[in-house]
């Protein structure tokens, strides 16, 4: 164990940094995608509703590893070879970010849709009856209430996404799982290396959920 | 009603369908400035739907509705502008749960640039005093009783300085001991000259405060007149039938 930590600890710690970088990039865009498709699902517009529903269904119906291969290998192949345009190259980070953002974004869209729909319809009606626009009512009245109910699910989704970065080892991104595999390849110390990797994930996720809980408490203070 | 008074709400051949279901079939009524109209009728007769058509919370299927000079059945009318002049009070209060009483009062006036923060606060405090809620300005809705919530909801609507007020069963969700405090606020409002359309089952309120009572059934107004005409001497069988059940 000591040998793994002194010999490869720093390398694995850096890999953990890459994991976090990837997760952060993915989550950032996932939030945007989630908000867009979540809102598209609740507004009174059939076309938007259908597009949002199809997006969520497609992403939920495809395993993330397939999505990862498809984006990393399939899309450049389509562009360069099938369409013959050429010159397209995706880095593992870009492809990984897109993959995570789409995957997590679809689940976020569902969380946001459910959160908005959990707010009593009377809240929107009261706001509209005062002359506020749909957007103003959404921003000032509905979303603030929706977000409070959404926070636990969002934290949960963040944790899942953080763990899902491991899937992106298959496209060669040097995150923690990929790096640990290499360490084991050199040292054959499976138990120690995978154990250390597991502990690293665990520590980050515990820290994340603890601080999220604290934030949630602060948001709820003084209400109800 | 005096003929020289301005028509505040003009409803002509109003129709409203929900898919196959025809809820409002042909509603015609003119409501004059300062008039208090109480709408009675059995459950499902379309009273709420009628009220919600007056500020277009429901899309209108056909006919014309003009409120405070705004033809809200005209596609080009800015519905948000029109709604600023029409306050609505709901059965379930619908106070904004994410804001305290003052926040509820100030949101629309400040957001719609009707007033600065200071002005909005001043107006809010005055109105809250009028409804007897000046001691609760920092309370959240969850900390108020039903009667208190409804009085705040009325004040919130008044904060936009509307010319017409709509009430949809404002006391139906209240414990009996709180009904009086809300009706008293409404009665005062009527006395101050507000034009009001009130859907309610409070026959006593109708008799005392209404200038006119209309009886709705099955998507039509089937009888209307002064409270004594409609409540005490109804002509229509169905009105008699309904009143015998609620009185
Ligand atoms: N959004 C809606 N979609 C479909 N049907 C609706 C909708 N809103 C109301 N209805 C139907 O329209 C009819 C009239 O409803 P409305 O709420 O206007 O009646 P009401 O006179 O207010 O009754 P109550 O005294 O029970 O409040 C009912 O049959 C109701 O089921
Ligand atoms: Mg009703």
Protein described:
The complex is a heterodimer of chains A (224) and B (247). Chain A has 224 residues and is mostly helical. Chain A contains eight helices and no strands. Chain A has helices at residues 2-42, 46-61, 64-82, 92-118, 121-129, 134-164, 176-187, 190-220. In chain A, α3 packs across α4 (92-118). The termini of chain A are far apart. The mean pLDDT of chain A is 93. Chain B has 247 residues and is of the alpha/beta class. A six-stranded mixed beta sheet of chain B has the order 6-7-8-3-9-10, with helices on both faces. In chain B, strands 2-1-4-5 form a four-stranded antiparallel beta sheet, covered by helices on one side. In chain B, β9 and β10 (220-225) form a beta hairpin. In chain B, α3 crosses α4 (117-130) and α5 packs parallel to α6 (176-191). Chain B is globular, with a radius of gyration of 18 Å. Chain A binds chain B through residues 120, 122-123, 125-133, 136, 140-141, 144-145, 148, 222-224, and chain B through 55, 57, 80-84, 86-88, 90, 92, 94-98, 107-108, 111-112, 140, 142, 153, 156-157, 160. Magnesium ion binds next to α1 of chain B. Adenosine-5'-triphosphate is lined by residues 18, 21, 23, 41, 43-49 of chain B.
Write the layout of secondary structure elements.
The complex is a heterodimer of chains A (224) and B (247).
Chain A: H1 2-42, H2 46-61, H3 64-82, H4 92-118, H5 121-129, H6 134-164, H7 176-187, H8 190-220
Chain B: E1 7-18, E2 21-32, E3 36-40, H1 47-54, E4 62-67, E5 70-71, H2 79-83, E6 86-89, H3 101-111, H4 117-130, H5 146-158, E7 164-168, H6 176-191, E8 195-199, H7 203-209, E9 212-217, E10 220-225, H8 227-232, H9 237-246
Parallel strand pairs in B: 3-8, 3-9, 6-7, 7-8
Antiparallel strand pairs in B: 1-2, 1-4, 4-5, 9-10
Bound molecules: adenosine-5'-triphosphate and magnesium ion.
């Amino acid at each position: 164990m000591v040998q793994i930590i002194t010999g490869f600890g720093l390398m694995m710690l850096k890999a953990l940094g890459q994991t976090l970088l990837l997760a952060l990039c993915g989550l950032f865009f996932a939030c945007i995608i989630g908000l867009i498709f979540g809102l598209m699902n609740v507004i009174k517009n059939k076309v938007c509703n259908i597009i949002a529903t199809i997006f969520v269904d497609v992403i939920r119906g495809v395993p993330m590893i397939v999505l990862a291969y498809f984006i990393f290998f399939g899309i450049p192949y389509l562009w360069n070879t099938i369409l013959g345009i050429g010159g397209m190259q995706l880095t593992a980070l870009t492809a990984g970010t897109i993959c995570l953002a789409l995957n997590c974004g679809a689940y976020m869209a569902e969380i946001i849709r459910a959160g908005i729909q959990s707010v009593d319809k009377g809240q929107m009606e009261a706001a509209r009856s005062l002359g506020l626009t749909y957007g103003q009512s959404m921003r000032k009245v509905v979303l603030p209430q929706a977000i409070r109910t959404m926070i636990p699910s969002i934290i949960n989704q963040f944790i899942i996404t953080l763990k899902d970065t491991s899937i992106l080892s298959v496209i060669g991104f040097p995150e923690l799982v990929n790096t640990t595999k290499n360490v084991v390849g050199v040292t054959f110390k499976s138990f120690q290396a995978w154990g250390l990797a597991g502990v690293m994930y665990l520590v980050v996720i515990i820290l994340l959920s603890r601080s999220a809980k604290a934030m949630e408490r602060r948001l709820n203070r003084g209400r109800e | 009603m005096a003929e020289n008074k301005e028509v505040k709400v003009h409803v002509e051949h109003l129709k409203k369908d929900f898919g196959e279901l025809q809820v409002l079939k042909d509603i015609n009524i003119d409501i004059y400035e300062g008039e208090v109209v109480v709408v009675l009728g059995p459950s499902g007769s379309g009273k709420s739907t009628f009220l919600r058509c007056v500020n277009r919370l429901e899309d209108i299927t056909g006919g014309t509705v003009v409120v405070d000079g705004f033809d809200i059945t005209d596609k080009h009318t800015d519905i948000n502008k029109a709604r600023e002049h029409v306050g609505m009070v709901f059965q379930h209060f619908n106070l904004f749960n994410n804001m305290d009483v003052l926040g509820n009062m100030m949101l629309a006036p400040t957001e719609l640039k009707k007033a600065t923060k200071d002005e909005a606060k001043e107006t809010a405090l005055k109105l809250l005093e009028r409804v007897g809620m000046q001691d609760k300005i920092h309370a959240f809705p969850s900390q108020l009783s039903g009667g208190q919530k409804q009085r705040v909801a009325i004040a919130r609507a008044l904060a936009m300085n509307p010319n017409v007020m709509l009430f949809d069963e404002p006391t139906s969700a209240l414990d009996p001991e709180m009904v009086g405090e809300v009706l008293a606020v409404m009665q005062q409002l009527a006395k101050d000259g507000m034009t009001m359309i009130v859907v309610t089952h409070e026959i006593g309120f109708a008799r005392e405060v209404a200038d006119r009572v209309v009886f709705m059934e099955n998507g039509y107004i089937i009888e209307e007149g002064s409270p004594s005409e409609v409540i005490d001497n109804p002509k229509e069988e169905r009105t008699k039938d309904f009143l015998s059940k609620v009185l």
